[in-house]
Design brief:
By secondary structure, this protein is mainly beta. Helix content is 4%, strand content 43%. It starts with 6 loop residues before the first strand and ends in a 6-residue tail after the last strand.
Length: 122
């Protein structure tokens, strides 16, 4: 499907994000039409943890970031105001889950989330 990618985010800065092309699982080369699919990505200290640091979603609730699906790609990014909230001090990881209109689920392998804290304040 796609390779694992670590996220390196500077606290308080706009992060342009990442986008993943999604291909049909059957052959791995045909672009998958993601019309009607939803995406959700979460950052946690580790996979089984109930502690949630951040969420991106194609239908975000208040306090969540926006995941976008365009054609056969899914992407996540952050505004400066969103990344300014990132203050956890330790390891964290993420992955991205895509759900089709008929309930099929694809998981994009995530990776580490590394936050570089900033010193300058408003």
């Amino acid at each position: 499907m796609t390779d694992q990618r670590d996220l390196n985010i500077r606290q308080g800065a706009t992060w342009p994000g990442l986008a993943w092309p999604i291909f049909a699982p059957a052959d791995g080369v045909t672009p998958l039409d993601l019309a009607g699919w939803t995406a959700r990505a979460q950052v946690r200290p580790d996979a089984p943890s109930a502690t949630l640091y951040w969420t991106w979603s194609t239908a975000p609730d208040a306090g969540e970031g926006t995941a976008e699906i365009i054609g056969h790609e899914v992407g996540i990014a952050l505004t400066a105001a969103e990344s300014a909230q990132f203050s956890w001090g330790g390891p964290a990881g993420y992955d991205v889950k895509l759900t089709s209109p008929d309930g099929r689920v694809l998981v994009i392998p995530g990776g580490a989330v590394l936050i570089t804290r900033t010193y300058t304040r408003e």
